[in-house]
């Protein structure tokens, strides 16, 4: 039940900013009473934190699968497409400015350290990237997934040429 709730809440926060949704709005969107929400979550902040945590675990699972298999191009394509394709809230949490929320900021910082370690332990080792190249690689990929639809919705040929160029730069 809680996993199903978190899944639906994640979708709501993907589409709407935290400040835009009241507990009443969330309850209405989920088809449950506000009191039922409070049964599962003591506050809206706690609900959001648990949702981010749930989303983070899904993102980690994706990284665990993606970073250890496939060639560099498959990894680049997967990293760029994942946030939009899966509507993963954690993947866009910094873009949406949620780090301003005191409760969430610490979790985001800790989680990003874990992700950095995961990239270092896999990409660095598999593709012989030094620290600086790894930082550049992540920065480029992170920036491109933020622009994914606005750049490539109309022309997948551009997407192909950009991913090929990233692979060329980091191979």
From TrEMBL:
GO-annotated molecular function: DNA binding
Residues annotated to bind DNA: 22-41
Domain (HTH tetR-type) ranges: 1-59
Annotated Pfam families: TetR_N
Keywords (A to Z) from UniProt: DNA-binding, Transcription, Transcription regulation
Gene3D superfamilies in the cross-refs: Tetracycline Repressor, domain 2
Transmembrane segments: none
Protein name as annotated: HTH tetR-type domain-containing protein
């Amino acid at each position: 039940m809680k996993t199903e709730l978190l899944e639906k809440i994640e979708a709501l926060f993907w589409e709407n900013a935290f400040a835009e949704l009241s507990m009443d709005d969330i309850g209405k969107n989920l088809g449950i009473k506000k009191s039922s929400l409070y049964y599962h979550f003591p506050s809206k902040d706690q609900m959001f934190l648990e949702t981010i945590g749930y989303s983070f675990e899904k993102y980690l699972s994706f990284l665990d699968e993606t970073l250890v298999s496939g060639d560099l191009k498959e990894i680049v394509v997967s990293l760029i497409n994942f946030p939009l394709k899966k509507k993963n809230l954690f993947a866009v949490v910094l873009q949406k400015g949620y780090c301003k929320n005191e409760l969430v900021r610490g979790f985001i910082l800790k989680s990003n350290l874990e992700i950095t370690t995961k990239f270092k332990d896999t990409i660095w080792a598999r593709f012989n990237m030094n620290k600086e190249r790894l930082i550049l690689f992540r920065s480029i990929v992170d920036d491109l997934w933020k622009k994914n639809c606005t750049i490539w919705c109309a022309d997948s040929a551009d997407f192909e040429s950009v991913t090929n160029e990233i692979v060329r730069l980091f191979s």
